[in-house]
Design goal:
The protein is an alpha/beta fold. The protein folds into five domains: 179 residues, P-loop containing nucleotide triphosphate hydrolases (Rossmann fold); 89 residues, no CATH class; 140 residues, P-loop containing nucleotide triphosphate hydrolases (Rossmann fold, 3-Layer(aba) Sandwich), CATH 3.40.50.300; 161 residues, PCRA, domain 4, CATH 1.10.486.10; 206 residues, Lambda Exonuclease, Chain A (Alpha-Beta Complex). 47% of the residues lie in helices and 13% in strands. The protein is built from 39 helices and 22 strands. The strands form five sheets. Strands 3-2-6-7-1-8 form a six-stranded parallel sheet. A hairpin with a 4-residue loop joins strand 21 and strand 22. Helix 9 packs parallel to helix 11, helix 25 crosses helix 26 and helix 33 crosses helix 34. The two termini are 56 Å apart. About 3% of the residues have low confidence.
Length: 978
């Protein structure tokens, strides 16, 4: 057994070791809360002997959950990595898939993204019978407001029925204002009801439903709730200050018999706009009267002067803080050796403030020989406040990066892609074609493009028409040849756009014109901007694929219409950031900075109405009578803004600068922020500025990092990824490190179709023969195995096939039809052979995560059957050519599954692995074998060796004609051999 965790301070050790009841850990900024949570999980498993599967840890973002998972796995001594570390929403989705049937939710209920919800309302807009909220001119104007309002209702566990009842209960008393209120509230209540009905009719839920229906399940189905609660002995909740009412109730329901640990800091509750309510952490001790509280105050990030500044500020939120309510001391004590400074720079104008901040950054960089550009952050209150600072940094030649939470639609590569789609929708769109002609990959001469532009200003021709008419522009022979090749690709892809999905069309067009090849080559040459562009490109394809899932008949034309509607509604597109970036000054909103730290921080525009921001009116507020925690909106607003300022201050390690100015373009001079006054900066005199013309400096954007330092190696590995590496390390890099979008194939679409069909078919067999609903966590054991197993009839199997059919990547209608027919033939033979001999799988498409040689290996097993002797048969479907004989390399995939079934849940509760079977669907042939210790040992050694090469970033290409001929990246790879 391992000893008590080392390297922790006294309070951290106490928090890790305490297991005698509910625990509130008040973890101030920079006090190591993630370390405490992960150490506590490891302590429970390694020292207390708690099974990982009986631990549940909940947090808010996939990033936070992944980080917690990775750090916990490094400390776990077991190879059994199934502690449930998850976001609230992912956890609830899993519960509802298993138990939702008990409250009328089908196990295969779809989860609608915000995009799909928007489309659903958009497509049913005229059935909503709007009167009070009827938009003038722009029919889609209020859709985002409606969705935000419905989300708030679900955050408060307000049912459509209770909303309607409240609206009906309102009295008028012949008051015109009350009449208007009742009209508005009644229409909102009806809209909420109709919105939920549209979701139910579509067999779908939105994200708010995941929490809402899980709480409903736990409150209304005691027997099911008992099963779920019994599974967990320890529950940990991170960032507890950010829970909304629904999430608080969820935790209460889950933790009735478990040891509950919540970790949070009321002073860092900054997400009220997402439904978080700081009152939830404030009331924790009221409801858990026996809870122990442990306060973490040793700060490992900032100098003491910075911490004192933050503490002086946040005192102004008393008495509505835990420090006052619990009579505890939350003053942070710095452990950093460096001395710290806090300063205020005040200027006459915004222009002077911007240039003054940039000059100060350059001055510090020159003085601190150890500082890199990455050590600097400019924190803004709103995205729009960043523009001037970006312009000034660009003017000085200082590398920067704007880490925004939104703005995907404004990224250069996304605009390139959208203009490509536009030209395929309308060949006469000259603006679109002009942008395309400027693509670096086309090498269209700038002087000839300029000459062409001047000429066409005087003639009524589009760029497309002019390029077709060789006599009109008199281009050089080489340039005309380039134009002809581009026009040919536009014609071909215009035809493709008529019947293919936008993602397929865009990828094909990018490949055909050399755009992806040029981008990939730039990455290989160490172009850091190209790495960022690829990151944005991945997000664009995520955006396209989300739309395509919502609209089965998605085409370029209807996608562009949808995209334009989003732009009109003010949607800038969600934007997430890579974990590592080229060395640069970081510009980001204070919300985005949470969880980060920088050596030097500049908090800018510190004036009233900018920070604190003006309280926003508008929107659709939920009636106070329906809220569980109504509050004074004005006081709550400035308290939240003050907490946001506290978060910004505590990002700084060594130096903190506030900046402000008198003039931001309005008629009146701006007042310094009240937060400056609260920390002691009063009566500041504007900085004297020189009137010398600032000359743009030529700064070489050098970096101490190597090009491949910007590649993030995955933290876990799958068998297919490892096989990709063995085939060609460079292909692995493109697919799993850079994550370039890649072509599919008709074969892969067909294989996935059959997999999905058989998963649904055997899932239906489980449902038809199960006497008690299985749980998400316990083995799907049957109470009594039926003697005569009931299976869907053949026609139902074909319906499933048609429903699961994937239309993408076939080479024309002929291949499509041949595969479609072949699939029905395969399923007919399958059904005839298996009919009367059906099995009820104990697991279907079940995921695992195990540790081999310190590396996390993930995977998914198609099917697990249990035989009469108690052994398990692990089955993997294959749609390729049947092997005449299984060689050693062929067996590795199933041997890995054998290791997973032997060491992790839920498999080992079912039995021990016996037969390992490849089921070749084409010929309806099963090839089975049993794994032995020698094979398993050899596989583990091989996996460890391969993963070590990946971690060392050994991505040398290994081209050969056979491999390259079937590679997804053959169109863009400069090393290919065909």
């Amino acid at each position: 057994m391992s000893q008590s965790p080392k390297g922790l301070n006294k309070a951290q050790q106490e928090a890790v070791a305490y297991t005698d009841g509910p625990l509130l850990i008040v973890a101030g900024a920079g006090t190591g809360k993630t370390t405490v949570i992960t150490q506590k999980i490891a302590h429970l498993v390694n020292t207390k002997g708690v099974e990982p599967g009986r631990i549940l840890a909940l947090t808010f973002t996939e990033k936070a959950a992944s980080e917690m998972q990775e750090r916990a796995e490094e400390m776990l001594e077991s190879t059994f990595l199934d502690a449930h570390i998850s976001t609230f929403h992912a956890f609830c989705q899993g519960l509802l898939e298993s138990y939702g049937i008990h409250i009328g939710i089908p196990s295969r209920c779809k989860l609608f993204t915000e995009t799909e919800c928007w489309l659903m309302l958009h497509n049913n807009l005229y059935e909503l019978e709007l009167d009070y909220f009827r938009p003038l001119g722009n029919p889609t104007k209020h859709i985002h407001d409606f969705l935000n309002h419905f989300s708030k209702c679900k955050d408060e566990l307000i049912s459509p029925q209770s909303y309607l009842e409240y609206a009906e209960s309102l009295t008028l008393d012949n008051d015109a204002e009350l009449q208007e209120d009742k009209t508005r509230i009644t229409e909102l209540a009806n809209l909420y009801h109709k919105y939920n009905q549209l979701l139910l009719d579509a067999g779908a839920m939105d994200f708010g439903d995941l929490i809402y229906y899980t709480v409903k399940l736990l409150k209304e189905r005691p027997a099911v709730a008992k099963q779920i609660r019994q599974r967990f002995t320890h529950i940990l909740v991170d960032e507890f200050q950010d829970v909304n009412y629904a999430q608080y109730e969820l935790v209460k329901e889950l933790a009735q018999h478990a040891q509950l640990t919540v970790v949070g800091d009321d002073d860092q509750s900054i997400y009220a706009f997402r439904g978080a309510n700081v009152a939830n952490i404030l009331r924790f001790k009221d409801e858990y009267t026996d809870a122990k509280e442990i306060v973490l105050t040793e700060n490992y990030r900032s100098g003491q002067q910075i911490l004192d500044c933050a503490y002086q500020l946040i005192q102004n939120n008393n008495p509505e803080r835990l420090e006052s309510k619990l009579n505890i001391n939350k003053k942070l004590i710095g452990t950093a050796d460096d001395t710290a400074s806090v300063s205020h720079l005040h200027f006459n104008s915004l222009h002077e403030e911007v240039s003054g901040v940039v000059e100060k950054i350059k001055e510090i960089k020159a003085m601190d020989s150890e500082a890199s550009w990455d050590d600097f952050a400019i924190l803004v209150r709103a995205n729009s406040h960043a523009d001037q600072f970006m312009d000034e940094l660009e003017r000085y030649g200082v590398p920067y990066e704007f880490l925004s939470a939104s703005g995907l639609h404004r990224q250069a590569i996304v605009l390139d892609a959208l203009h490509c789609l536009k030209i395929l929708k309308n060949n006469l769109d000259s603006l679109a074609l002009y942008r395309i002609l400027k693509f670096e990959c086309l090498e269209f001469p700038t002087e000839e493009l300029h000459k062409m532009t001047q000429l066409l200003q005087k003639k009524p021709h589009s760029y497309y028409e002019a390029l077709q008419d060789k006599s009109l522009l008199e281009l050089s022979g080489e340039t005309q040849a380039k134009a002809d090749r581009l026009l040919q690709q536009i014609r071909e892809h215009t035809k493709l756009a008529a019947f293919s999905k936008p993602s397929i069309v865009l990828l094909s067009f990018f490949e055909a014109i050399g755009y992806l090849s040029q981008l990939t080559h730039a990455v290989e040459s160490g172009d850091q901007e190209a790495i960022t562009q690829i990151f944005h490109l991945r997000q664009l394809f995520d955006y396209l694929e989300t739309y395509e899932k919502a609209v089965p008949e998605a085409r370029v034309e209807n996608f562009l219409e949808y995209h334009n509607s989003l732009l009109e509604a003010g949607d800038e597109g969600a934007l997430y950031q890579p974990s590592d970036t080229p060395e640069s000054v970081n510009i980001l909103t204070i919300h985005k900075s949470k969880g980060l730290e920088f050596k030097y921080v500049f908090m800018v525009n510190m004036v009233e109405d900018r920070f604190p921001a003006r309280r926003k009116g508008g929107g659709l507020s939920v009636p106070d009578a329906l809220l569980h925690e109504p509050n004074n909106e004005v006081d709550a607003h400035y308290q939240e803004e003050r907490r946001l300022c506290y978060v910004g201050i505590t990002r700084a390690k060594k130096g903190l600068w506030f900046s402000s100015s008198l003039d931001y373009g309005g008629a009146r001079a701006k007042k310094p922020s009240r937060f400056l006054v609260e920390v002691g900066f009063t009566g500041q005199i504007p900085q004297k500025r020189s009137h010398a013309v600032l000359v743009r400096e030529k700064v070489t954007k050098e970096t101490t990092k190597k090009e491949d330092d910007f590649y993030t190696i995955p933290h876990s590995f799958s068998f297919s990824q490892i096989k990709t590496y063995e085939t060609c390390p460079y292909k692995y890099k493109l697919a799993h490190v850079l994550e370039l979008p890649s072509r599919g194939s008709g074969t892969s679409s067909f294989g996935q179709t059959l997999h999905n069909t058989l998963q649904e078919f055997y899932g239906r067999i489980q449902e038809l023969n199960r006497t008690e609903q299985s749980t998400l966590f316990e083995p799907g054991a049957l109470q009594d195995v039926p003697k005569n197993i009931v299976a869907p009839v053949f026609s139902e199997l074909i319906e499933m096939y048609e429903r699961n059919w994937i239309d993408d990547w076939y080479k024309g209608k002929r291949q499509h039809d041949e595969f479609y027919k072949k699939g029905k033939e395969i399923l007919k033979i399958f059904y005839e052979v298996e009919d009367g001999n059906w099995t009820i799988p104990v697991e279907l498409e079940s995921r695992f995560k195990i540790k081999i040689g310190g590396n996390a290996i993930t995977g998914r097993i198609d099917r697990v059957d249990k035989h009469a002797d108690g052994t398990l048969e692990i089955i993997d479907y294959k749609t390729g050519k049947t092997k005449e004989k299984l060689e050693a390399g062929d067996k590795e995939q199933l041997l890995l599954y054998h290791i997973a079934a032997e060491s992790s849940e839920p498999y080992r509760s079912h039995g021990s692995p016996g037969l390992l079977t490849f089921y070749y669907l084409n010929d309806n042939i099963k090839m089975s074998f049993s794994g032995n210790e020698k094979q398993i040992h050899r596989l583990k050694e091989k996996l460890e060796a391969t993963i070590e090469k990946i971690k060392e970033k050994q991505f040398k290409p290994t081209p050969n004609k056979f491999v390259c001929g079937f590679c997804d990246f053959k169109e863009i790879c400069e090393y290919r051999k065909l």
